[in-house]
Queue: 2 jobs
Job 1
Amino acid sequence: MSDAVRVESDAYLARMRTQLEDVAAGRKPKGFFSANRPSALAFSAPRPPSPLMPLCIGQSEVLPVSARLSLFSAQSGLFDLGSIDNAEHQQIGRFDLGFVLVYLMPLMLIASSYNLLSGERERGTLPILMNQPVSPLGMLVAKAAVPLAMIAGPAVAIPILWTLVASPGSGELWGRLVLFALLVVGYGAFWLTLAVMVNLLGWRSSTNALALGGCWLLF
């Protein structure tokens, strides 16, 4: 798609350049002469696709891949005008792996870690755990690592398996996948760290859940 937009834009600018050269040489320009009006000059700027674009295909369906640029183009509306959107995907929503990671993964991590310490206290098993040769913080970190591996692990493994099947020799894609994996793990670790900090405050499980849910809404 971006290649087609680029070819069309280059052809348009070539026609405008030819018209100006004809006028400068004293010849009548071919076609409707619009190169003398700056407001009429416009071309499409493509948004190059990323190698990881299939992971966010849902958002690419509702966001245009090119912008129509002119002298009076508004920066805030560049990618909102002149695009044809998929109505079916707009009704379904932007549900893809990117949406799951950004919005749903924190909720899943919160649901599995809001009562790491408070749950043990409410069940009466916290004194038993405190008698074990491990610090409370170490115990929390170990318990928090389990949901991170179970939730973020598949999110990282699926794109890697897809790369092995689709384009195993693409160096740029592998570099972006490494960055993607680091971002996913770091993003999940942020929410688990927040859950551990809330658990250390000594609140009840319901209070922890409300506090972490409020943080999710805030961020």
Job 2
Amino acid sequence: MDGVVVIDKPAGWTSHDVVAKVRNITKIKKVGHAGTLDPFATGVLPLTLGHATRLTNYFLASDKFYRGVIRFGFSTTTFDLDGEPLGEDLRPALDTARLRAIFATYVGAVRQTLPPYSAKKVRGKPLYAYARKGIDMGAATKEVNIKSLELIGVEGSEVEFEFSCAAGTYARSLAHDIGRDYGCGAHLVRLRRIRSGEFSIETAVTLSDGTRFYPREFFLSHVIPMRNLLAEIPAIVVSASDAERLVHGMDLNLLTSAWEADRYRLVDEAGEIVALGERLQTFASPVAQPAQWVRVHPKIVFA
């Protein structure tokens, strides 16, 4: 079975836990996930199955959309509710107008403070390796791209918010940095991923009905086949002979109206994906406008 099944990850599970459970239930050996969620977080976790595991990096690079809650008053060692408090709870009276003004500064290209317990590598080692040994590496930062950030509501010391971002953005760092700017510290207490690239919460399934885990047939019935994945990448239909050339890693000259695209889904006449290719060159076509010839190199081939 090749494709993607979208899981609504429950709180308390790691992303690896979900992969292991689905692998065990479905008996599919090759199962991966397209984007880690922290144990306390819930929501969209796309699992790649079979040959679709080779597409994982494409899904990892997609934009994400989240809804969450920030608690103001103190920060924590992990920037979220699982960490130890850093200082007393200041219990601030939150000013909505001031919060909105701070939120506005976090849209676009911004630098985030990296969580001490993260997999981001510094000097060849992940930050959590230093943190577990009590080694203070200082406030490491990275640039991320936040597409939108909206304050939804304020209740006591907690703020509900929504945001969309490019891959590599830390929601708990966003909470931490906003709390720092407000002057009282803050940490993330709830996070739900609503969308990850082409996968939304509306298509996600739970692991169980609350009393028992669903059987193998349930998950297999919700697999999105490979022919329906990466629809935002233009498709070019190739002949059987060209498909054979792709399997052997050969470049092809193909006619397409999407000649400005950087990459293509190369599909057979039945619509099944044969390869993912990248454009090497464009040639003007004297006979078929606005279509033009492109030279395409296969990056991932599905024999």
